[in-house]
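BUG: 3D viewer hangs when loading the predicted structure for this chain

Environment: internal workstation, default settings.
Expected: structure renders.
Actual: progress bar stalls at 90%.

Input used:
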Amino acid sequence: MTKTALDPRLHAYRDDLAAETLRGKVSAPRYVAGQVRQVVHPATPLWMRPDARDGWATQVLFGELVTVYDEKQGWAWVQLARDGYVGYLRARALSPQVKRPTHKVRAPGTYLYASASAKALPGPHLSMTALLCVAETGPTFARLAEGAFVPMRHIAELDRFAPDFVAAAERFAGTPYVWGGKTRLGLDCSGLVQVAMHAAGLDCPRDSDMQQADLGREVAIRADLDGLQRGDLVFWKGHVGIMTDGFLLLHANAHHMAVAAEPLRAAVDRIARAGLPVAAIKRIEAKAAPEARD
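Structure tokens produced before the viewer hung:
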């Protein structure tokens, strides 16, 4: 294949095939239009190659849509509709029957129940921004198209958003650190940023280098680290955190092995000892979004 500057994380091409949309942009022996599938597992890992022994690249949440370009030996090579990420996931996590989402999970996590009762048997656990097809709403529970029930207080219509992405991120405090994770059960630094921004109706790529390149506007890095505000993103090579005010940094990190808030100066000094200075600070110009109901 001819060399290309296209990022393989965001463009579906391999030596043996490429997405039809890339015809004329990359050289491949075969181009495929792909087929749309929907994730039916609560969350499923996505890998950069079809080897479950590798660490995850990211996770794909319940209800998300993907385009499948190739499937063999139980693996599907896909591109995610939500953020464009490309990789491999287990084909059994996908369904060809696509139910149009009407709602999303707005709580950090929730359960699907067998009936509309808090005493009912709980089923799968879903995390924030998972997508749902609601067939009927009630005073306390909503019934999904597949028959399960979910608490009304834990969901919101697709066009209703958290008013503050930082507050959405703060709800994950104490969540374990998991490389490639994007759920209440575990997430990484850029996964925390992406989930929180998606909850607030803001576009956000998956990896920290993409976030540094695409999000917000540059803020000068002062030696005293003064002048920062809530919502500023602080980047190191391979890491990102969210300022909750001018002093505290919230980040999923391998030092605490959790989502933790700490003084920015403490994080900067500790990471500098590993040879990594602050690479950039970006200020998010967040749009106003309709609030989800209480």
